[in-house]
Amino acid sequence: MAGAVNRTTPDIVLKAIGLVKQGKVATLGKVYQQDAPAFGSRGWRMTIPGLPTGGPFGSHQLVYNDEYLATEIGQIGTQFDGPGHIGVVTPEGMYFYNGRILEKDPQIGPYGLGPLGVEHVAEKGFVCRGVLLDAVALRGGQLPIPTGAAGDPGIITGDDIEAMVKAQGIAPIGEGDCVFLYTGHGDIWHPSDWDKFDAVEKGERVAQFNSGEPGFGISGCEYLAERKIILTGADTWAVEAVPGENADKPFECHMQLQTRRGIWNIENLDLSQLVADGAHEFLFVWAPLKMKGATGSPGNPVALY
């Protein structure tokens, strides 16, 4: 059930490690906090119960604090989509990756997704050649929220991917790669300045961030799938364009890559340091949390270059 990450071989890992030339490290996760943008009704609520939560103990009067978290932990902030996240309704039932029919699998229920749980991907983890596609450089500025029309500048096609690879002077995208798209849309919610804004401006930015997003169109996603990559990611909340080319088929890339091919997705990344350093190729290292039966995972991936 690990999907496309099974393509990772020792040779792919060793080649990816060879991309580390400068000894630089960039963490790609955004800060998890209550007032950050979230999709739909999702939310992040953290409290510290007690202050202190426990103690004091012993003659040295030790105390400790814990946190209590209420959230859709696999689908908030910087988030990884696992095998149980995206499905499609068919005449046989709700179809998920690897032919699993939700209603017909006795291992699947409200307390876990059984064979579709994210822990099956977490057993493998991701160690790969990371490829940063700088669409802001390609378009000459932050990409707009698309209207869904053909030729829309907010939609990244297969031809656009080839153009970015050529302009950046990197090797073609190939099997086992992890591919990340910088659109500039993620800068609406950027961890370096988010807390500088008051509640009103934060609210306006949240509404703007969630109203739609630039990203891969279906031809871009098919291009990546044909090259047998193992992971997509972006500085946006869905990675693909919203709306896409076909308004009647929302999140078509999610279905084509994840449900059909097991090519997973990580959203809401902070790619700003990679962009600033011109790091278009790097060693990408990350694994989802081993949460039994979960739909996805939070995380803070690392790029080394």
How would you portray this structure in words?
The chain has eight helices and 18 strands. Strand 7 and strand 8 form a beta hairpin. The protein has a nine-stranded mixed β-sheet. The protein has a three-stranded antiparallel β-sheet with strand order 7-8-9. The protein has a two-stranded antiparallel ribbon with strand order 2-5. Helices cover 21% and strands 22% of the residues. The chain is globular. With 305 residues, it is of the alpha+beta class. The protein has helices at 10-17, 119-122, 135-139, 158-168, 199-210, 218-226, 252-261, 272-277, and strands spanning 25-27, 44-47, 54-57, 62-64, 68-71, 79-81, 88-90, 93-96, 100-101, 126-134, 155-156, 178-182, 215-216, 231-234, 264-267, 281-286, 296-298, 302-304. Helix 4 (158-168) crosses helix 6 and helix 6 (218-226) packs parallel to helix 7 (252-261). The mean pLDDT is 96. The protein has a single domain, classed as Putative cyclase (Glucose Oxidase, domain 1). It starts with 9 loop residues before the first helix and ends with a strand.
What are the salient characteristics of this protein?
single chain, 305 residues, alpha+beta, Glucose Oxidase, domain 1, nine-stranded mixed β-sheet, three-stranded antiparallel β-sheet, 8 helices, 21% helix
